[in-house]
Amino acid sequence: MYGEVHFNADEIVNTGIWNKSNIYSDALYEHIVTKHIFTSSIKKTMKVLLLITASLSLSIAAAKAQQTRPKTDTVFFEDFNEKTLDRSKWNVEITGNTVNNEQQAYVDSNATFYLVKGKAAEGAKNGALVIKAVYQPGFTSKENKKYDFISGRINTQAKMEFTYGTASCRMKMSSGAGLWPAFWALGNGKWPDCGEIDMMETVGDSSWFSNALHGPNYFGNTPLAYRAFFPKGTDVTQWHVYSVDWTADHIIFSVDGKVTYTVTRAMVEHYGRWAFDNAKFIILNFALGGGYPAGVNKVKEPYNGISQSTVDKIKAGQAKVFVDWVLVTKSAG
Q1: Higher-confidence residue: 332 or 111?
Q2: Is 188:157 a contact under the CB 8 Å cutoff?
Q3: What is the 3-state secondary structure (H, E, C) of 69-97?
Q4: 185, 119 Cβ separation under 8 angstroms
Q5: Based on the number of CB atoms within 10 Å of its own CB, is 109 exposed (0-12), middle (13-18) or buried (19 or more)?
Q6: DSSP labels for 56-67?
Q7: Using CA atoms, how far apart are residues 152 and 91, in angstroms rounded to an integer?
Q8: Distance between CA atoms of 195 and 215, rounded to whole angstroms?
Q9: Gap between the Cα atoms of 313 and 310, Å rounded
């Protein structure tokens, strides 16, 4: 008797008439119940299959990524876990002729660089290198030049040099107008012909750092530079990993795995010779004041590029750079 009457089981359920008294017969009621249960079961099964398929797809993609990820060899690793600086890896620089109108003298002293562990390492698990700016008015260099500040600079020249690869450093630093720490790589020979790669420079504004390349006809106020701003709530006073990936065709800068600036060989050769096929060594230093900071902050007094508040911070022993580790790798084979 209901052969010409058509019902949709989902509509009956969804409209709230899921009640045997509202159905024409027991047979129709059983038909609707059976169809609804079957349909619900199919839907649930499909959802499970879709989830399994998505999960398998992600697993396969991850496995392929793992297989295609290039293998690397470690060229150099330093995590500053000893009691003192390992001088088989690092040279300590002492000021000769000051460059860039910087206001510090570099000295070989426990006052300006030292290693720390535990709480003093401020989050560096195995220990850290500290490079510290110190107020020492009247300090006289061997060239008989006077300075009011001393600081530290170390490099791997002739101890570890590399051509192409990835160089990374986990570090954090104090902020303050005129504080100029850097992590960079330099070639041997006359500058700028030897080529310079600046993986991280900051001049005291904690909200950003810069990447740059220097070479013949693109040096000083180089056109190949980029100012990378941190996301809100993040700055240079926190731990970050600064890196460069260097090949024969491009140089890619990044922070915490995120690309900040890419320079190709063609971009460089628009200005001058590509100066990045020769070996470079790593430098870590903490400069104070000078041309770059002064060009940004326009401070002239009490020192070129260094504000009074920064001088007070240095006097209080609060101007420091912490370095957790330095790593250089190259593609295997």
Answers
A1: 111
A2: yes
A3: CCCEEEEEEECCCCCCCCCCCCEECCCCC
A4: no
A5: middle
A6: HHHHHHHHHHHH
A7: 11
A8: 5
A9: 5
> Burial level of 88, CB count in 10 A (0-12/13-18/19+)?
exposed
| Helix/strand/coil for 293 | helix
**What span, in angstroms and rounded, lies between the C-alpha atoms of 289 and 306?**
5
Sequence spans of domains, the chain: 9-68, 72-331
Tell me which fold the domain 72-331 belongs to: Jelly Rolls (2.60.120)
CA angle, corner 249, sides to 248 and 253, nearest 5?
95
Per-residue pLDDT tens for 135-174?
Answer: 999 999 999 999 999 999 999 999 999 999 999 999 999 9
Question: How much is the pLDDT for 39?
Answer: 55
**Terminal-residue alpha carbon distance, the chain:** 82
Rounded to 5°, the CA angle 282-155-309 comes to 95
Helix (H, G, I), strand (E, B) or coil at 262: strand
243 residue type, one letter: S
